[in-house]
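re: ur question from yesterday

yeah so i grabbed the chain u mentioned. its 404 aa long if i counted rite. heres the sequnce exactly as i have it in my notes:
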Amino acid sequence: MQQSLYSILLVVFLSGIYVSCNEIQSKPIEPEKIEPFISDSITQFLKDFDQEFEREFRRQGIPGGAVVVVKGSRIIYQNGFGVKERGTQDSVDINTVFRLGSVSKGFASVLAGTAVDKDFIDWEDPVTTHLPDFGLNDPDQTERTQVRHLLSHTTGLPRHAYTNLVEDGLSLNRIIPRLKDVELISEEGVQFSYQNAAYAVIEKVLESKYDTTFSGLLYQELFEPIGMTQSSSTRNELRENENKALPHLYHSRRRGLVPVPITRKYYNAISAGGINASISDMGKWLLLLTGNNPEVISDEALDYIFEPVVTIGNRRFSRYWEGVNESHYGMGWRILDNDGQKIIYHGGYVNGFRSEIAFDRENQLGICILFNSSNSYALRAIPKFFEGFKNADTTYTLNPLPSN
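ran it thru and got these structure tokens back, copy pasting raw so excuse formatting
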């Protein structure tokens, strides 16, 4: 009886959703969304993390956000904060949909991994094997450039080559032929140089092997098999969703952050930044990434995706990780060595939406945070989470689920 009461209280706590700027509490999260069978130390840590997140959330005046945490094969925490649109009382919940920005890149590499599992493509295939019209400024380098170079940003193109054309709304069919006009800065596989247009070439590679669009492949191979029922990849799907967050941008000192329209940017290059998802869906995504869906993608494919390919020289994305001295990029993912702990990470920003995702495959621990505005807490929250969880995890055990 005491254990049952404890479980009920835990569910009640983890189900609270807080609203920024107004003290209004929304409907609680359904109990079945939360996994109550966790240790006391982790329960206390999640409570403390929740409270600190809310404090920072309010202090910075962030309109809305959501968080999910997975451990092992379970979602152990998920929560919504604030409101979908500043000036309203419409609370964010775990099914509210946000834009992911560059966190979309990880979906593209995993989708490519499913194609490798089916022997449709190979990581070391020359891009021209699947796209004969693909070209770079150097014909020899064109023939040597492989699928893995697209996904690791090591094609030899300068940073953000033709990102301006992506943001101007040109189709990939119009952008890709222009890549051959850009002067190269290195041979393939040598230098990390972040891309959006060149990264999105993977969409055409995959479409050449299936009788559907890249958007259709996302549904067919990822969203539907793992139950990401709120996820989508078009502007219209997001705009027509009644449970969506609106993006916010800074207007002025007097008005602060204000809601702005959902733009078309990056829906023409979905793999670079065009996916929409809720935090409950991102929990399912984290479970796949930590190895819980071998029927969708093999561990062998995930191992390849998360293997460091090229060193990243800057500290922009790792400066708040006290234990990180070295950073790499794999296939659509940044890879951080956090005092021996391998953290797979990516962040995203598009159209006023901010996203962060990180996980430790070895310990099957992951977190994702979504915001509907830019903020300085985004880069600090996840490093603090991993540091705190490591301290709380000394006595961590997942109690067995009750038998039926």
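noticed a couple things. The CA atoms of residues 117 and 298 lie 7 Å apart. also The first helix runs from residue 2 to 14.
anyway ttyl
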